[in-house]
Design brief:
0% strand; single chain; mainly alpha
Amino acid sequence: MLRYTWFMSASAARPSWTELFELYRAAHQQPGTKLTHLLGIPMIVASLPVSLLRPKLGLALFAGGWALQFTGHYVFEHNDPQFFGDPRNLLVGVAWSAAEWARLLGWRGERGRSQAAPPDS
C-alpha cells in the first residue's frame, strides 16, 4: 500500500486529491471499517451545527463519531487514520462517506442515469 508522511520535505510533492481518494479507499477495505465510518463521519459532521444549539448533544455526536472512526481503524483495519498522514483526508473522508451513502441509497448521478436503460414505453 502506498504510504506517505505529512512531515515530508518542502521539495517533496504532496499527493494530489485524486491520489488522496485512492489512498483513502485503499485504507478502508474491511466491512467493519466501512460501517463505522458510514456512521461516524456523518455524526462528526452533524455535531458541528448541532453544537451551536445543543452543546451536550453536539459533544456526544462528536465524541461518538470519533470513537467509531478509531474503532474502525484499530479493530477492523489495523491501520492509522488517513488524516494522520495528511489533514486533507478529513475532507476526503466526508466526500467518501457522502459518495458511499449515495451509492447505498441507489443514487447514480447524471452519469448513472444516462447509462441506464430507457423507460418502457
